[in-house]
Amino acid sequence: MNSEKPIALIIEDDEDLSVIFSEALNAAGFQTETIRNGQLAMERLKVVTPEVVSLDMHLPGVSGLDILKFIRAEKRLALTNVVVTTADAVMAEHVRDTADFVLIKPITFGQLRDLTARLSSASTE
User: Fold this and answer.
1) Which of 32, 36, 49, 50 has the largest count of CB atoms under 10 Å?
2) Per-residue pLDDT tens for 7-35?
3) Is residue 73 part of a domain?
């Protein structure tokens, strides 16, 4: 059995939110990496296969929507769970069928705790 922790990428330009997401995902057993720029996220996604991506829709460099399209088009990332985080309700509705989960900001700690528990149990199945 592989003892390495599954990787979770946190693609979020808000530093406070990225810290909260990182703490919640670490507590759920994920190894986390935070990226605050869409272009850097695209470059990183070309070389890693995360189990989970927490994805903000409004990023500098490349939009979250373009990153989501890239993830869904890449066979290597077919099993990656994408959690879209956005304050834009219209955008949330637009990506609801493409993302695995959609969280509307502001996100409560309870929402995050429950979601990471679901992701953690899914990664051990």
Assistant:
1) 50
2) 999 999 999 999 989 998 998 889 999 99
3) yes
Query: What is the rounded distance in angstroms from the CA atom of residue 11 to the CA atom of residue 92?
Result: 16
Residue 87 within any structural domain of the chain: yes
Please give the model's pTM, rounded to 2 decimal places: 0.90
Distance CA 103, CA 54 (A): 10
Q: Are 31 and 6 in contact (CB under 8 A)?
A: yes
Number of domains in the chain: 1
Torsion angle defined by CA atoms of residues 13, 16, 18 and 23, in that order, rounded to the nearest 10 degrees:
170
We report the CATH number of the domain holding residue 50 as 3.40.50.2300
Q: Is 2 domain-assigned? A: no
Count helices and strands in the chain by DSSP H and E runs = 5, 5
List the domain range (segments joined by +) for residue 29. 7-123
pLDDT tens digit sequence for 82-91: 999 999 999 9
Q: State the number of CA atoms in the 13 A half-sphere of 41 facing the CB.
A: 31
Neighbours of 2 (CB within 10 A): 5
